[in-house]
Design brief:
With 104 residues, this protein is mainly alpha-helical. It has three helices and no strands. The N and C termini lie far apart (95 Å).
C-alpha cells in the first residue's frame, strides 16, 4: 500500500503538471490568435501593403509640390504659374481676357 506521503506527492505532481499544461495551452492560444499571432499575420500584411501604396502616392505628391515650389522661387519664378495663381487666388484678369468657370 501507498503511504500518505506518496499520495500527497502524487497529487502535487498532478497539480504541477496540470498547471504546466494549462500554461502551455495558453501560450499556444496566444501564438495562434494574439496580436502578433498567426491569424493576425494576414491582416498585418494587408495593412502593410495599404501603407506602402499610400507612401508611394505621398512621394509622388511630394515631388509635384517640390516642382511647384521650385517654379515659384522668387529669384526666377515661372511666369505662367504665377499668372495662373494670381488669376485663381485673387480673381485678377486683364481687360482683354474672358473668364470661363468650369463646374468641379
Amino acid at each position: 500500500m501507498r503511504s500518505m506521503r506518496q499520495d500527497a506527492n502524487l497529487g502535487r505532481d498532478r497539480l504541477v503538471q496540470g498547471l504546466a499544461l494549462a500554461v502551455l495551452l495558453l501560450m499556444g492560444l496566444y501564438v495562434a490568435v494574439g496580436p502578433g499571432g498567426l491569424l493576425a499575420w494576414g491582416e498585418n500584411q494587408r495593412m502593410l501593403e495599404q501603407r506602402r501604396t499610400k507612401l508611394a502616392e505621398l512621394r509622388v505628391e511630394r515631388e509635384q509640390l517640390k516642382n511647384r515650389v521650385a517654379l515659384l522661387d522668387s529669384r526666377h519664378a515661372d511666369p505662367d504659374l504665377t499668372g495662373e495663381l494670381l488669376r485663381s487666388n485673387l480673381n485678377v484678369a486683364r481687360p482683354d481676357e474672358m473668364v470661363m468657370l468650369l463646374p468641379r
